[in-house]
Amino acid sequence: MIRVQNLETALDFFINKLGMIEVRRREAPEGRFTLVFLATGPGESTIELTYNWDQEEPYNLGDGYGHIALGVRDIHGVCAGLEKAGANIPRKPGPMKHGTTEIAFIEDPDGYK
């Protein structure tokens, strides 16, 4: 689960830039929050975005958070498209330390990598 500051901005990033799909949404007016579940495809694992309606201050990202890993077929092409769409890519595609797998880090609108 990721708490997001602006739901529309987060959905634009995850859906329009990363190509995820919204699979479920729950509005909780009594708790003043919205939960949106996204996946990379039908039947795939989901990421939960939590939008607390009254949260005005940015969230502390915390030191226990690492990253969310998504596998893609063409990391260079995906990153080029994300960069063209305005996404921040603090670590460009390249081999990971102590291995040959190519990785990159992108940043969502709330600063999560």
List keywords for this structure.
single chain; 34% strand; alpha+beta; 4-stranded mixed β-sheet; 113 residues
Provide an overview of this structure.
The protein is an alpha+beta fold and 113 residues long. The protein contains two helices and six strands, in the order E-H-E-E-E-H-E-E. It has helices at residues 7-17, 75-84, and strands at residues 2-3, 21-28, 33-39, 46-52, 88-95, 102-107.
Helix coverage percent of residues? 10-25%
The value of Rg in angstroms is 15 Å
Largest sheet geometry: 4 strands, mixed
First and last CA, distance? 14 Å
Unreliable stretches: none
Oligomer: single chain
Instruction: Give me the side-by-side strand order of the main sheet.
Output: 1-4-3-2
Order of helices and strands: EHEEEHEE
Structural class assignment? alpha+beta
The mean pLDDT is 91
How many strand elements?
Answer: 6
Strand-residue proportion: 25-35%
- Based on Cα principal axes, name the global outline: globular
Number of helices: 2
Quick synopsis:
This protein is an alpha+beta fold.
Give the SSE map:
Elements: E1 2-3, H1 7-17, E2 21-28, E3 33-39, E4 46-52, H2 75-84, E5 88-95, E6 102-107
